[in-house]
Design goal:
Length: 70
């Protein structure tokens, strides 16, 4: 058993709260376009998808530049 996930009834509420926070604010969900539930709840869908597209575009440019420099 992993020490970070040991079963302790006194610590269980904290562990559950940590997982719920992770699940809602950090874990990307494939059914939500790989965004978090928090992004959907707060209406940041378009903003987050636009930022992702911009980052992917920049990464593509960086790869092309690196390939041409080699």
């Amino acid at each position: 058993m992993c020490p970070a996930h040991s079963v302790d009834l006194e610590d269980a509420p904290r562990q559950i709260a940590e997982y719920i926070d992770y699940y809602n604010t950090k874990r990307l969900h494939s059914s939500l376009y790989y965004l978090t539930p928090e992004d959907f709840l707060n209406g940041r869908i378009d903003e987050r998808l636009k930022l992702r597209d911009e980052n992917l575009y920049q990464a593509r440019l960086n790869r092309t530049e690196a390939k041409n420099a080699a």
